[in-house]
Amino acid sequence: MAAALRRAITEGRYPVGATLPSEAELAAAHGASRGTVRQAVAALLAEGLVGSRQGARRVVLSTTPSQSFTELRSFAQWARAGGRTAGGLVLSSSRGTARAEEAGLLQVPPGAPVLHVLRLRTLDGDPVLLERTVYAEWIAPAVEALPDDCESVTERLRRDEGLVFAHGEHHIDAVAAGTADADHLRVRRGSPLLRVRRTTTTAEGRPVETSDDRYRPGSVVFTVRNSTQTNPLTRTHA
Question: Is the whole model's pTM more than 0.85, yes or no?
Answer without folding.
Answer: no
